[in-house]
Design a protein that fits this description.
single chain, about 240 residues, mainly beta, globular
Length: about 240
């Protein structure tokens, strides 16, 4: 089927020391399961830059009953079963060709490909802090704020920045607000103080057994949202 590509979930695609980015590559195929039968199909993913030799990102071993290339999406309703692979270590803002090859037991190959631009790198933070009362001022009546400042990015594919609120060390988050492109890279959010707030499970359990009302530590994500450049045209 036609390939689809988007930036990886921001919980997994955090800013890296080498500025690399991750993308999710999606495809559909009628035979996603390996059953040790002659009709089994094995996948291989390749990618390459313009004028570069292709690199193999992953490849299923012919004859094996478990996949090392692609994860089936059981929750997606489509005409054909869908799979995806998360591809990391890519340089931002590069035009790349991705291909997914389906290989049968006779080593016959059928492939689909797409050319796209990788997303820009994550925003650079200038300041992240929680405000405090000035010296010699009482904390009574003071309302702390979480202040975020980041460097606005200039790229024709950037649509804006999404700010998510999540729970530390837990795979749960929600969209808090949207900062469109062109707006200043600044945000202030009010904070409500709670006692017995932890990120570690053992500390949460200890306070819970001591009859305290416990709270999971929260975390903010600022993600660059971009359109996907597929075959030369912006999409999404």
């Amino acid at each position: 089927s036609a390939l689809q590509l988007h930036r990886t979930d921001p919980r997994l695609n955090t800013k890296r020391y080498d500025e690399s980015v991750c993308v999710d590559l999606h495809w559909s195929h009628p035979h996603p399961e390996l059953r040790s039968l002659p009709g089994d199909v094995y996948f291989q993913i390749r990618w390459h830059g313009v004028g570069e030799p292709p690199s193999v990102y992953c490849k299923d071993d012919v004859g094996r009953t478990s996949r090392s290339c692609g994860v089936k999406l059981n929750s997606v309703q489509s005409a054909l079963p869908s799979s995806y692979a998360t591809i990391c270590g890519l340089r931002p803002n590069r035009t790349l060709d991705f291909s997914v090859e389906a290989i049968n037991c006779d080593l016959q190959v059928s492939a689909a490909s797409v050319q796209t631009a990788t997303p820009p790198s994550a925003p650079d933070f200038v300041m992240v802090k929680v405000t405090e009362p000035a010296n010699q001022e009482s904390i009574a009546g003071f309302h702390p704020m979480a202040a975020l400042d980041w460097v606005p990015q200039n790229d024709p594919l950037i649509r804006g920045h999404a700010v998510y609120l999540g729970l530390a060390d837990i795979s749960a988050m929600k969209l808090l607000c949207w900062v469109p492109i062109g707006a200043p890279g600044h945000l202030e959010l009010p904070i409500v103080h709670r006692n017995h707030t932890h990120a570690q499970a053992d500390m949460l359990v200890e306070d819970y057994w001591n009859k305290h009302s416990v709270h999971q530590e929260q975390v903010l994500y600022v993600a660059t949202r971009t359109a996907c450049l597929v075959n030369g045209a912006p999409s999404g």
